[in-house]
Amino acid sequence: DSGVTQTPKHLITATGQRVTLRCSPRSGDLSVYWYQQSLDQGLQFLIQYYNGEERAKGNILERFSAQQFPDLHSELNLSSLELGDSALYFCASSVQADRTEAFFGQGTRLTVV
Amino acid sequence: SQKIEQNSEALNIQEGKTATLTCNYTNYSPAYLQWYRQDPGRGPVFLLLIRENEKEKRKERLKVTFDTTLKQSLFHITASQPADSATYLCAFGGFWGYNKLIFGAGTRLAVHP
To answer: Which residue among B32, B44, B106 places its CB closest to the CB of A104?
Structure first.
């Protein structure tokens, strides 16, 4: 158990809908990351937050947004969902903002039908 | 753009042998490399981190090398066991102030009894 909690574990929704994925980092970790993993793409970095502020952005679509709250949990919002958004979404956390290992949650499997 | 390559073919070895996985990178000089293990449907688990000024790092049966001249990292598992069967991901980072880990696609390792 990495100490990172993601909910829900599975999500099935229709195209055009909006969903919210939630992540609770390990106790004491200030940084949260979101990754997308689809079958043919591997792990793709989406966004990083550190102590409530956006720190780095990757290939995150404009339909996607995220935030980190004062209690350090984070949410990833996915809107206007398309079939191609079906993937595993992982959250990870680390103590500091850089040069450190990341601890991953078990992921949320999103299926868009 | 930065690119990280791992052997896409699965590696099959006999129990007790040493498994060696390769990670090559281009268009960047990372400050550190990390190796993760991922089991099907689960989040990656951190194994080892090696910095650019370190040639080798060990942890129990695991060993990582980092050759900045060849732009390559090798990951070794000695005395391999069937329980070591998984996908192994390398990732590099080293961006000041943020931990935008760029992952390779992973190499699937199968250890046969």
So the answer is: B44
Q: Cβ contact (<8 Å) for A98 and B98? A: yes
CB A107 within 8 A of CB A20: no
Q: Using an 8 Å Cβ cutoff, are B6 and B107 in contact?
A: yes
**Which chain B positions have a beta carbon within 8 Å of A105's beta carbon?**
43
C-beta atoms of B43 and A106 within 8 A: yes
Long-range Cβ contacts of A60-66 (<8 Å, 24+ apart): A60/A34, A66/A34
- Chunk chain A into consecutive blocks of 10 residues (it has 113) and report each block's average pLDDT, rounded to whole numbers: 95 98 96 90 90 90 97 97 96 83 95 97
Q: CA of A104: which chain B residue's CA is closest? A: B43
Quick: pLDDT tens for B12-65: 999 999 999 999 988 777 778 899 999 998 999 999 999 888 989 999 999 999
**For residue B5, what are its two tokens?**
């390559």
Q: Specify the length of chain B in residues.
A: 113
Q: Using alpha carbons only, what angle is made at residue A1 by residues A38 and A108, rounded to the nearest 5 degrees? A: 30
Residues forming beta bridges with residue B21, ordered by sequence position? B75
Q: Which of B41, B42, B49 sits opposite A101 (nearest CB)?
A: B49
